[in-house]
Automatic annotation (TrEMBL):
This is Hikeshi-like domain-containing protein. It comes from the Eukaryota. One of its GO terms (cellular component) is nucleus. Residues 132-184 form the Hikeshi-like C-terminal domain. One of its GO terms (biological process) is protein import into nucleus.
């Protein structure tokens, strides 16, 4: 049905690596995969296998769970997007570590995969959406700081020169051409 790969950490793994909970839910116990260093796994590639046909209105949703915390949605794949590299922003472990028995260790981190209605999922790539939001905020902050240096005050209003946006954009473009690393500072 699907396979996963942890870049720089694993070979491709198929569904047999996961424990099947029911017909539409699978869990990968990170303790058996990497032990306590689960939070060092920052990305996961998930892909549909060629022989599997997911209905067009369904998706494979990916969730992560740190010990004692709830599951957190990370993204999904569907027929229109048959593979994806997803960031794994592991939540802080929960306040109360869940113990299965007095002699056992706390429940490990998990990656969950489930078949869900495509329409019920927020965005197939949560991380890409957050990167875009972060990028927009950083560019806006850069523009605000530039404008602030040219502002005057007229009562309760800020007054800026008419060509301030043109001047900022020209400076922004020139800096990006001169320094290829400049734009990388705006992304996560």
């Amino acid at each position: 049905m699907f396979g996963v790969l942890f870049p720089n950490r694993s070979f491709p793994m198929d569904i047999s690596t996961f424990s099947q909970i029911d017909t539409v839910h699978w869990i990968l116990d990170m303790n058996t995969f990497v032990g306590e260093a689960y939070d060092q796994i920052r990305e996961m590639c998930i892909f549909l296998l060629n022989g599997f046909s997911l209905p067009p209105d369904k998706a494979l949703a990916v969730y992560i769970q740190s010990p004692g915390s709830p599951f957190l949605f990370c993204g999904a794949v569907s027929l229109s997007r048959p593979s994806a590299v997803l960031s794994l922003p592991w939540p802080e472990p929960g306040g109360q570590m869940q113990i299965t028995s007095p002699d056992s260790v706390p429940i490990s981190a998990k990656i969950g995969v489930s078949v869900e209605d495509l329409s019920s999922l927020p965005s197939l790539d949560v991380t890409a959406q957050k990167r875009i939001e972060h990028l927009a905020m950083k560019v806006g902050e850069n523009l605000f700081n530039f404008m602030q240096s040219f502002c005057g005050v007229d009562g309760s209003r800020l007054v800026v020169p008419m060509d301030i946006l043109d001047r900022w954009f020209k400076k922004f473009q020139e800096r990006a051409k001169r320094d290829p690393e400049y734009l990388k500072g705006f992304v996560l």
